[in-house]
Amino acid sequence: MENPKGSGEFRLFRGENMNGVKPIKETFMTYLAARNLQEEYSIDLVVSITRLGPIDAVKISNNYIFAVEWETGNIASSHRALNKITTGILNQRLIAAY
């Protein structure tokens, strides 16, 4: 993992949106894609009147869907991820998630 790309190291910089989240997620998603997980996978998940966004990555095998949600640890971000995972499992659209 590098930030900036090609530097051979990982540095954080001062300023808005410079906390390292984007390069960390991009590296993780590249890692998952190299292992044949599909990125930004949409399944029809609706909670009340709110449609949940796509799942970060999924592995589909024998019509079973395993989901991966990447989060920063921010409470709102974590809540959204767990909401997608729980709703998907309860609606029998997901078999498991991480």
How would you summarize this macromolecular structure in one to three sentences?
The chain is an alpha+beta fold and 98 residues long. It has two domains: 1-35, no CATH class; 37-97, no CATH class. It has helices at 21-33, 75-90, and strands at 38-41, 46-47, 50-51, 55-61, 64-68, 96-97.
Question: Topology, please?
Answer:
Elements (H helix, E strand, L loop, with lengths): L20 H13 L4 E4 L4 E2 L2 E2 L3 E7 L2 E5 L6 H16 L5 E2 L1
Parallel strand pairs: 5-6
Antiparallel strand pairs: 1-4, 2-3, 4-5
Descriptive notes:
The protein is of the alpha+beta class and 98 residues long. It has helices at 21-33, 75-90; strands at 38-41, 46-47, 50-51, 55-61, 64-68, 96-97. A 4-stranded mixed sheet has the order 1-4-5-6. Strands 2-3 form a two-stranded antiparallel sheet. It is flat. The model has no long low-confidence stretch (mean pLDDT 86).
